[in-house]
Specification:
The chain is an alpha/beta fold. It is 37% helix and 26% strand. The protein folds into 2 domains: 84 residues, Arc Repressor Mutant, subunit A (Orthogonal Bundle); 48 residues, no CATH class. The strands form 3 sheets. A 3-stranded parallel beta sheet has the order 6-5-7. Strand 2 and strand 3 form a beta hairpin. Helix 2 packs across helix 4 and helix 3 packs across helix 4. It is elongated and about 75 Å long.
Amino acid sequence: MKRVEAIHSFENIRLLTDTHRMEILQLLMAAPATLTYLARTMKQSPAWIRHHIITLEAANLVQVSEIRKTGKVTEKFYRANADALFLQEIILPKTKNPTVIFSGSHDLALEGISEHLERHVNILSMPVGSLDGLVNLRQGLCQISGSHLLDASGE
């Protein structure tokens, strides 16, 4: 089964804002390719492609998958390190106090606690519902999650 990898690094997300790098990466996700193939496909020079490949290699987004020698010609095949990418980054305020993100069902008790602790910690709310709050916690999009639980009486 092919895999999707999350990119958490703002620097790597910034690298992919270049449309040419993004296109190279998407081609390498589809199949391994040489600089010559990529250059022909994108109607650019191999040197121009190589410049972007070096950047993608340094970010650990692509790698050499195979080296073929035919006579005096050596061809390197590059491939993407993931079959798909999920970009995820949260931009937080720059303050002297630490910031904590709460995600889940809206909670009046947590709102009161947040007001009481605001001198020491910034608590930001991302209300998305119980299940999505737990999903966000698992994906590292928050540090605290709240959810509704069904008790034995059915409430």
